[in-house]
Amino acid sequence: MSGAHDVRLGMPQLPAPDYPAEVRARLESDAKEVIARYPDSRSALLPLLHLVQSEEGHVTRTGVRFCAEILELTTAEVTAVSTFYSMYRRKPSGDYQVGVCTNTLCAVMGGDAIFEALQEHLGVGNNETTDDGKVSLEHIECNAACDFAPVVMVNWEFFDGQTVESAKALVDDLRAGRTVEPTRGAPLCTYKETARILAGFPDQRPGAVAASGGAGPASLVGLKLAKGELAPGRIVSPRGESEPADAVPPRPGEQAPETHPSSHDAPRPTAASDPSHPSGPVTEEGE
Ligand code: FES
């Protein structure tokens, strides 16, 4: 870090302090285990950033220095990566990172109202932490759980189908130290504990693995439709092929609809599928 400057003040910046010897030794041992999983040591940077985050709750200059030294990178290279990804925090924050999805579907289903209510309830704004250091509130982007909108994430665990009242109760429980259960997935743990799991050290608590759930019924609707289990009907095959052999026929007594529910999304005939297409059939040479 020698020669680094604080660009805001134009002043030389002091080198980042090192960890205390005991902490350094422990982190080095963990880091070696992580690095050994990769053919190229620098590939371990992302888990190592989680590892140093598990120590202090955010990526400090000391953590950046540690990663740089152990991976033989520059602190500028490590900083560039750690500031790119939103899962690395750059300032002290709460034990529980409460993210309210305010992307389009969650927003219209109540996410915007939940975020506003939590700001008022907790007395903090976006990316701010309650005075007791328990909860940090933030907007988050879509977490691909739109079918359970509006979604709140706590330390990356899902709390589906939230309301203003349930979200307020959730943060109250977190601040009071009461146990809360995510809708699915592993049991909730603190941000530091979560960071250690993300670094590649599995949650050893009894039941942690067994508790991991899969996709819920709403997530499986598309799959069931595709299999004909929810709305059996004609399978629209792309490129004019015949129905697949495993197409699910209508159940006895059920009337097959004229078209598949999603037939309006079926591919249109193209030069590749329609010999009479004005562009003519696609040939090997033409591709
Ligand atoms: S819009 Fe919120 S999870 Fe997708």
Automatic annotation (TrEMBL):
Instruction: Identify its protein family.
Output: Belongs to the complex I 24 kDa subunit family.
Q: What is this protein called?
A: NADH-quinone oxidoreductase subunit E
Q: Origin, by domain of life? A: Bacteria
| Region Disordered: start-end pairs | 232-287
Alphabetized UniProt keyword annotations:
2Fe-2S, Iron, Iron-sulfur, Metal-binding, NAD, Translocase
Q: What does this protein do?
A: NDH-1 shuttles electrons from NADH, via FMN and iron-sulfur (Fe-S) centers, to quinones in the respiratory chain. The immediate electron acceptor for the enzyme in this species is believed to be menaquinone. Couples the redox reaction to proton translocation (for every two electrons transferred, four hydrogen ions are translocated across the cytoplasmic membrane), and thus conserves the redox energy in a proton gradient.
What is the species of this protein?
Answer: Streptomyces zagrosensis
The record's CDD domains line, in alphabetical order, gives: TRX_Fd_NuoE
- Cofactor needs: [2Fe-2S] cluster
Provide the GO MF annotations for this entry. Answer: 2 iron, 2 sulfur cluster binding; metal ion binding; NADH dehydrogenase activity
Query: What SUPFAM superfamilies has UniProt attached to this entry?
Result: Thioredoxin-like
Catalytic activity as recorded in UniProt? a quinone + NADH + 5 H(+)(in) = a quinol + NAD(+) + 4 H(+)(out)
Q: Which InterPro entries match?
A: NuoE-like, NuoE_dom, NuoE_N, Thioredoxin-like_sf
